[in-house]
Amino acid sequence: MALLKIEYYSEVLEMNRQVNVIYPESSKVEAITKSDIPVLYLLHGMSGNENSWLQRSAIERLVRHSNLAIVMPSTDLGFYVNTTYGMHYYDAIAKELPQVIRNFFPNLSQKPEKNFIAGLSMGGYGAYRIALSSNYFSHAASLSGALSFEGMEAAQEANPAYWNGLFGSLEAFEQSDNNLNKLLKAPASKPKLYAWCGHQDYLYPANQAIAEKLQSAGFDLTYETADGTHEWYYWAKQIERVLEWLPIDYVKEERLS
Q1: The domain containing residue 172 runs over which residues?
Q2: Which of 79-88, 128-137, 168-177, 178-187 is least confident?
Q3: InterPro entries, alphabetically (predicted)?
Q4: Among candidates 239, 247, 256, 220, which has minimal Cα distance to 60?
């Protein structure tokens, strides 16, 4: 396994960006898949960046016996959307970054069935937002995701400049594809979905609400809950459950001789 830190110029954002990539050992990749390696795009939450999963979880150790590549980008505080202030983070992550990664690693799979996306909190929203509005990802996972903004009026009122800068007015948000409630009614594709949220998490009601809507809309959703709050202690554990859920050659360490 190799960990590569890459700096590239984003034509979309017109600035240099950083992305971390975990690349599987050749011995873990069967000859038949060496030009078709599966990829997981792993997204950070608010206050994080491309280093968050490396610093706060055991993701390197967890995938060292797998055939999976991991791509960890940053969207700053941009919520993985094209903001009203002109920073097109959605386009940079959903459209530009996969091409950038393929330029660096041409043997990573371009097939949707071997491309996956996951994230926590803001990144959980980003994973669903990107997967539902494209046909590039076959699986999307959210951990404590900000999957619905219902009941978030207090946060919006506390910092209206930030939220309006992201989404525009409430009316504009509700009618846009940034609103998952609207997007799931006419998605670009129907990826398999996974969601986890802790019972004591302030986003638990939002996850309950969106899970019911996704199931009613006919999505293949695996929804799991347990005691837990909005913190890395739980996400670092739950990412292993995501890896088990994905259709990859993943072997838990305790099973190894």
Answers
A1: 2-255
A2: 168-177
A3: AB_hydrolase_fold, Esterase-like, Mycobacterial_A85_antigen
A4: 239
